[in-house]
């Protein structure tokens, strides 16, 4: 009977249970990856700190800093993040070593492997940092209020940190950059950063009012259309980031070269004029010598009626010649006016040669303005050697004039018999010339002024010592005549300035007079 019961029992599985790795911090999932409203990295850090019931600064100092290199370690008390990062917090949502090191640290702490998609790191090869990200925090108060009233997570989308996004695509309102309570701007990451709240005063940044004015400026229809297009294209770019292989710089140059061939039959100057860009700069973009900024790319794509994502992914595959360039004004940039050819090359060279022998020599800017041009680059285009020679000659002329002017101002100071004499600091203040300039051009004169003032100071010091010695002797003789021992403390009580008794000269004078009176050997 017992054997039958034993046979009916199931055997236990004695294999070792595999325990998944545990994260140091909460395994907090980023919001909106693969969508236009993906969370920003700075907002994720602030939300992670809030989940741990810590301030952002404490979380950074106690947990994240130890994973970073020595140059990224944070020090100090409250406000330390502001002191270390200053205006560089915008780089944390962009590209570069700061972002890479920070992502590695956060992934090691949270065991989340997709944090790079909360930054612009994927586009580091095709987008320069200039004009890409904001330096201060921006937000839509209606979005904050809607998320809180509907019990959704309040967070900071990466889209709001992009410099070209100024209007909320959902509520068609300007993004706010100043707290409605304290009127101060917020950095993207500060010691007390908290999603939806001001890092300065702690006030709630959400609002349900339908405000259409920012600084008493109403959103125009042109601005609204442009911002809607910009926000849609940048949102599509962020949404496609996790599914794309990072594009290269050659991809952009190939795309722009294709657009030039399709829309302007290979004429870069004509293409640049139609899209409102500079001819030289457009040529550098097409040849891969430099990268267009995000605002320039958006303007080009808008004029060509092409999405920004297509420009990065399949721009060189466009083969339709029937596409039309838009001819409508944009609120952000006006097309540049081409230079007018007022003079021939021979005439300009003759004018430059004449200016090179003119006295006093004119500056290159003056020559440019007299010829009716706005920039000196057109003169460099015709003859860079002559322009450099004119600039060097004018620089030497201005230097000589400066030295001559300083010498004229210094002569009365040297010849003056004013007493007390002026110090070098007083001379520089009186003449309005910096001390390094005086020492550089007139070292001997500066040395003479300094020596004369030093002799005056030494003379005044000797006079003060003599007066002090006489006063000590008078007091000592008076005390001696009254039968009182003239000690240093008793003498100091009768001096006009008792504290001077501690000076070396005063101590020596006391010892001398005591020896003279027979109180010391």
Task: Describe what you observe in this structure.
This protein has 521 residues and is mainly α. Among the domains are: 71 residues, 434 Repressor (Amino-terminal Domain); 62 residues. Helices cover 49% and strands 1% of the residues. It starts with a helix and ends with a helix.
Overview features:
single chain; 521 residues; mainly alpha; 434 Repressor (Amino-terminal Domain); two-stranded antiparallel sheet; 2 strands; 49% helix; TniQ family protein; TniQ
Q: Would you summarize the structure shown here?
A:
Pfam families: TniQ. 49% of the residues lie in helices and 1% in strands. It is mainly α.
> What helical percentage do the residues reach?
40-55%
| Neighbour order of strands in the largest sheet | 1-2
> Quick one: biggest sheet?
2 strands, antiparallel
Distance between the termini: 123 Å
Contiguous runs where pLDDT drops below 50 for at least 5 residues: 70-84, 211-217, 319-324, 326-339
CATH C-level name of the domain at 247-317: Mainly Alpha
Shape: flat
Classified in CATH, the superfamily of the domain at 247-317 is lambda repressor-like DNA-binding domains
Helix vs. strand class: mainly alpha
- DSSP strand tally: 2
Tell me the layout of helices and strands.
Blueprint: H1 2-8, H2 41-51, H3 56-64, H4 80-85, H5 97-110, H6 141-149, E1 213-214, E2 217-218, H7 221-240, H8 249-264, H9 268-275, H10 279-286, H11 294-304, H12 308-313, H13 345-356, H14 364-371, H15 377-382, H16 384-415, H17 424-431, H18 435-441, H19 443-481, H20 488-493, H21 504-517
Antiparallel strand pairs: 1-2
């Amino acid at each position: 009977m017992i054997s039958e019961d034993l046979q009916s029992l199931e055997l236990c599985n004695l294999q070792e249970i595999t325990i998944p790795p545990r994260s140091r911090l909460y395994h907090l999932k980023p919001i909106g990856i693969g969508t236009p409203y993906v969370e920003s990295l700075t907002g994720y850090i602030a939300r992670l700190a809030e989940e741990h019931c810590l301030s952002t600064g404490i979380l950074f100092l106690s947990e994240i800093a130890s994973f970073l290199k020595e140059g990224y370690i944070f020090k100090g008390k409250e406000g330390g993040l502001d002191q270390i990062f200053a205006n560089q917090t915008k780089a944390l949502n962009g590209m570069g070593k700061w972002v890479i090191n920070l992502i590695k640290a956060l992934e090691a702490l949270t065991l989340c492997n997709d944090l790079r998609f909360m930054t612009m790191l994927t586009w580091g090869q095709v987008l320069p940092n200039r004009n890409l990200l904001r330096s201060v925090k921006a937000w839509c108060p209606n979005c904050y209020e809607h998320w809180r009233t509907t019990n959704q997570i309040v967070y900071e989308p990466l889209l709001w940190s992009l410099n070209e996004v100024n209007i909320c695509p959902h509520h068609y309102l300007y993004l706010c950059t100043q707290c409605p309570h304290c009127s101060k701007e917020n950095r993207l990451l500060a010691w007390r950063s908290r999603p939806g709240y001001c890092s300065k005063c702690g006030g709630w940044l959400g609002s349900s009012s339908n405000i259409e004015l920012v600084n008493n400026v109403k959103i125009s229809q042109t601005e609204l259309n442009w911002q809607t297009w910009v926000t849609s294209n940048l949102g599509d770019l962020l949404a496609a980031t996790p599914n794309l292989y990072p594009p290269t710089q050659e991809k952009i140059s190939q795309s722009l070269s294709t657009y030039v061939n399709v829309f302007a039959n290979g004429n870069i100057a004509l293409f640049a004029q139609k899209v409102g860009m500079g001819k030289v700069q457009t040529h550098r973009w097409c040849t891969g010598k430099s990268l267009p900024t995000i605002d320039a790319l958006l303007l080009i794509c808008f004029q060509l009626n092409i999405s920004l994502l297509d420009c990065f992914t399949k721009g060189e595959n466009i083969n339709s010649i029937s596409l039309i360039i838009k001819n409508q004004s944009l609120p952000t940039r006006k097309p540049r006016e081409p230079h007018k050819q007022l003079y021939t090359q021979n005439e300009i060279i003759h004018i430059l040669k004449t200016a090179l022998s003119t006295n006093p020599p004119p500056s290159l800017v003056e020559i440019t303005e007299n010829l009716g041009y706005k920039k000196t680059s057109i003169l460099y285009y015709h003859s860079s050697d002559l322009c450099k020679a004119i600039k060097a000659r004018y620089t030497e002329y201005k230097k000589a004039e400066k030295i001559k002017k300083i010498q004229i101002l210094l002569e009365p100071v040297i010849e003056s018999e004013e007493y007390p004499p002026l110090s070098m600091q007083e001379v520089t203040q009186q003449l309005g010339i910096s001390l390094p300039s005086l020492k550089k051009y007139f070292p001997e004169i500066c040395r003479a002024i300094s020596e004369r003032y030093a002799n005056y100071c030494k003379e005044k010091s000797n006079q003060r010592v003599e007066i002090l010695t006489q006063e000590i002797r008078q007091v000592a003789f008076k005390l001696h005549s009254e039968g009182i021992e003239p000690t240093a403390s008793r003498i100091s009580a009768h001096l006009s300035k008792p504290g001077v008794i501690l000076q070396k000269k005063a101590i020596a004078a006391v010892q001398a007079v005591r020896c003279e009176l027979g109180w010391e050997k």
